[in-house]
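Handoff note, outgoing to incoming analyst
You'll be picking up this chain. Sequence as last confirmed:
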Amino acid sequence: MLLRIVAVLGPIFILIAAGRILRRFGVLSEAGAADLAKVLYWFALPVQLVVLGASVDVAASADPRLVLAVLLAYAASFALGWWLSSGMDPAARGSALGVAVRANGAFVALPMVELAATQLPAADGAMLRAAFAVLLAPSVIIFNIGAVLAFRLPHHGVTRAGLAHAVDEVWRNPLIIACIAGLAIGAWRPGVLDGTMLGAGLKLAAGAAIPLALLLAGFGLSGDGLRGRGGVIAAATLGKLVVVPALTWLAGWWLGCPPAAVAAAVFLMAAPTAMASVPMARLLGGDVALATAGVTVTTVAAVISLAGWLVVMGWWMHG
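Most recent structure output, in case you need it:
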């Protein structure tokens, strides 16, 4: 099981290392990385989110209780992180919050769900896959709204003006707009893009998102992100990989969601910090080095924590 998890995460580290190598040999400059971050943020990631949402049969598989469970766990984690990070400078505070609460749903959690589904009875495996597919798009909206708030509120404060400024940025965020557009297409006619020239072009563009995000994460790797911040990174990692999924499990159980659906939500929230946190930190005033260090540490630690959650969820579902 552990070797299969490593096989899922291994390609992530290869591309992160490639980004570092590109920087080391001067192939990619600071200016080039900034331009790539804009391409990722304004084009590749939004296209990917539209394609993902459009492929989901929202009406057939949606469970509002499951979305509520994720929202409750996310809000509780965000509030706890906000309180614990009160003494940090605004840029570092935003990145620390992002590390602690934002999950890499599409590129780590999705393969983990597929892995878990193969270990379950056919009916449970099918429910796990369907629940995750429908949950992913609204959760990305939740994550991106939270990310914008995390990066901007420390600069503007939790005041009426500060909240208004953050909310204004939320509704202009291309990732959130893309999630809403993809969900709308999925609710109207799931799979409408399949087999079309437009769909093929969009899927081709969407495929650029994760390699770009990983290369940029590797480009930003630096010991500066860890130096003197070991406690912050450790606390954020513990929150991301243990506390957030545990709260999700509790919320899903409390709301009466089916066990397989709860497991899907737990796997989503137990994923390491999303790679998109790095370009977002770069563009929204966060601490890029801290965000990169958080992505790296949570991804390494997730090899063990995700194996643990697979065992726990399997035990909980089937005793």
